[in-house]
Specification:
The protein is mainly beta. The chain has one helix at 103-113, and strands spanning 3-7, 10-13, 18-25, 33-39, 46-52, 58-60, 68-73, 78-83, 92-99, 123-124, 128-133. Strand 5 and strand 6 (58-60) form a beta hairpin. The longest helix has 11 residues, at 103-113. The protein is globular, with a radius of gyration of 14 Å. The N and C termini lie far apart (40 Å).
Length: 134
């Protein structure tokens, strides 16, 4: 029943901005964490950012700190990723993912270990392409 749908990807020049949105259904909002991951061909999928719905606690990977911001809307059950100062290395397919079982631990674990765990996330969207030209 859980569904995640990403939107907002596109082509921008370096230094530009995009805002991605993840629309969710079928999740218990306050018990969930939402993560944004990205992947390029031949590369491992990497965690970019995550937010715990209950209190808004967040994790950002070092490469996007100060440039990306994740927000949640409990009424709409949506999560947005505002991406500013985009760089060519940000080019990837971006996936929205939901952790519906370990939300209370995912953010804290990421903060301690320095990265999100793919295996903590149970549901995935189809992805949206972000391309940043140099």
């Amino acid at each position: 029943e859980v569904q995640l749908v990403e939107s907002g990807g596109g082509l921008v020049q370096a230094g530009g901005s995009l805002r991605l949105s993840c629309a969710t259904s079928g999740i218990t909002f306050e018990d969930s964490a939402i993560g944004w991951f990205r992947q390029t061909p031949g590369q491992e999928r990497e965690g970019v950012v995550s937010i715990r719905s209950s209190d808004g606690d967040t994790y950002y990977t070092d490469s996007v700190k100060g440039r990306f911001t994740i927000t949640s809307d409990s009424a709409k059950k949506t999560f947005d990723l505002q991406m500013n100062s985009l760089k060519p290395e940000d080019t990837a397919v971006y996936y929205c993912a939901a952790d519906t079982t370990t939300a209370g631990l995912t953010i804290a674990s990421a903060q301690v270990m320095g990265g999100l765990r793919l295996e903590d996330f149970d549901y995935w969207g189809q992805g949206t392409q972000v391309t940043v030209s140099s």
